[in-house]
């Protein structure tokens, strides 16, 4: 296992995608916390790769990755079920988010090229594509959600299956202190490495690119106390803004040939 702590040389095409006016100002304002150039360089993504992003949410990373991959590669957003069989508050929320992401892709086709979607909502919708078919599967701040639904191992296993031999599973997640519950939004780094290795991955490298030593992880509303959510609203807002976004693990796993 290698740890990357040195400054990285960013691919000019990636640097251009990060600096592009296509991104919203709100998204760019988060770069100081999320370090997209350094994170994607650490993971090694090239412009001709096929990349699946699990649960892209509002598209923060998609605004970078989809244009970056538009000419020679392929961006695939693994989104929620847009036509759910059950009609609940949760499924309605998921469906709305999925449809919004699909609409965004359609509206920006000139910039995003052949970017597409696949449904990923375990346990009902698990298949991300043909086995051994993509170069990267990425997840940013989603592990605690799957843990809360008892679907974390399913997510890891499905990611392993769709990756080519030599493919990379890239993980960025809120990092807990030992003994913390996933209900806080934070996850234990050692446990995540153990689970990834259980399903077949090999840990290639870790990075402290997204570490935040100011994050004390002892908040009333868990990780959502910090920006961008600021769950306590105006209560101690300046304090939490000064801390910034959460302390995060950044992990790179490889699907090695058997």
Main sheet overview: 8 strands, mixed
Order of helices and strands: EHHHHEHEHHEEHHEHEHE
Mean residue pLDDT: 95
Reading side by side through the largest sheet, how are the strands ordered? 1-7-8-6-5-2-3-4
For the secondary structure, the number of strands is: 8
List the helices and strands and how they pair.
Layout lengths: L1 E3 L7 H8 L5 H4 L2 H4 L1 H8 L6 E5 L7 H8 L4 E6 L9 H19 L1 H4 L3 E4 L14 E7 L2 H6 L3 H11 E12 L14 H11 L2 E6 L29 H7 L4 E7 L4
Parallel strand pairs: 1-7, 2-3, 2-5, 3-4, 5-6
Antiparallel strand pairs: 6-8, 7-8
Helix pairs in contact: 1-5
Describe this structure as you would to a colleague:
The protein has helices at 12-19, 25-28, 31-34, 36-43, 62-69, 89-107, 109-112, 143-148, 152-162, 189-199, 237-243; strands at residues 2-4, 50-54, 74-79, 116-119, 134-140, 163-174, 202-207, 248-254. The relative contact order is 0.14. The protein has one domain (2-254): Vaccinia Virus protein VP39 (Rossmann fold, 3-Layer(aba) Sandwich), CATH 3.40.50.150. α5 links the parallel β2 (50-54) and β3. Mean pLDDT is 95; it is low at 1-6. It is built from 11 helices and 8 strands. The two termini are 19 Å apart. It has an 8-stranded mixed sheet. It is α/β, with parallel strands linked by helices. α1 (12-19) crosses α5 (62-69).
């Amino acid at each position: 296992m290698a740890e990357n702590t040195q400054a990285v040389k960013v691919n000019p095409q990636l640097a251009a995608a990060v600096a592009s006016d296509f991104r919203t100002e709100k998204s760019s304002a988060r770069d100081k916390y999320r370090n997209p150039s350094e994170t994607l360089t650490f993971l090694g993504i090239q412009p001709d790769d096929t990349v699946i992003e699990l649960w892209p949410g509002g598209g923060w990373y998609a605004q970078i990755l989809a244009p970056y991959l538009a000419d020679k590669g392929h961006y695939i957003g693994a989104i929620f079920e847009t036509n759910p069989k059950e009609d609940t508050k949760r499924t309605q929320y998921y469906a709305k988010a999925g449809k919004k992401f699909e609409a965004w892709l359609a509206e920006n086709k000139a910039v995003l090229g052949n970017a597409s979607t696949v449904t990923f909502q375990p346990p009902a919708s698990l298949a991300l594509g043909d086995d051994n078919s993509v170069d990267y599967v990425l997840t940013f701040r989603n592990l605690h959600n799957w843990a809360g639904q008892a679907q974390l191992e399913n997510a890891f296993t499905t990611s392993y299956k769709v990756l080519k031999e030599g493919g990379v599973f890239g993980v960025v997640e809120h990092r807990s202190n030992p003994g913390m519950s996933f209900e806080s939004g934070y996850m234990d780094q050692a446990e995540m490495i153990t689970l990834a290795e259980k399903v077949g991955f090999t840990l290639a490298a870790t990075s402290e690119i997204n570490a935040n030593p100011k994050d004390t992880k002892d908040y009333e509303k868990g990780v959502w106390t910090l920006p961008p959510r600021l769950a306590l609203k105006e209560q101690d807002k300046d304090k939490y803004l000064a801390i910034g976004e959460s302390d995060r693990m950044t992990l790179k796993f490889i699907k090695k040939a058997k």
